Write the structure tokens for this entry.
Amino acid sequence: MKLLEERIRQDGVVLPGNVLKVNQFLNHQIDPQLMYEIGQEFARLFKESPITKILTVEASGIAPAIMAGLVMNVPVVFARKKKPSTLDAGVYTAEVYSYTKKVTNTISVDQKFLSAKDNVLVIDDFLANGQAVQGLLEICRQAQAEVSGVGIVVEKSFQKGVSLIKESGVRLESLARIASFENGEVRFVEE
Ligand code: 5GP
């Protein structure tokens, strides 16, 4: 997605540890117009799929997910990172190691928001080693929901998440694909 690549070139800051900071439009300040275009692009890519629900994880997945949900006219569920209390019956849970925070979170979704009747599009802001997406796919598995695919805003193609998802046979669509960071510059995968 050209518009997104241009925005990453303009505002993205490469940090140590192969982390791209995009606080100008996605991770802190949010550009609603860009998010809307992203939502439209996900809707276009998955228009043949009978999606009934979008699943993401708080916090940064919510903005792109909600715009996709708006365009596709389906509800958006976000997995929570707060550990569910033992009193919380009826939740699906998965363990997710955070790439940026270096801690393991238990993510959870209330069972009433996801079931075997659902066909899910999983959306997240970044794909690095694939832990967040795998946690979301695990929650879909527990719910016995169908998964039509995974939509990622920024894929770091040189990290292992891409192959993990492809090996699991799930369709992956990423709107910007980063081949490498070289001397603080972002290089995108050539089409
Ligand atoms: P993964 O679980 O695929 O290893 O990492 C994905 C998660 O870590 C995303 O939900 C995102 O919040 C965070 N993340 C991973 N890499 C980056 C990055 O380069 N920049 C930012 N802003 N977040 C990242």
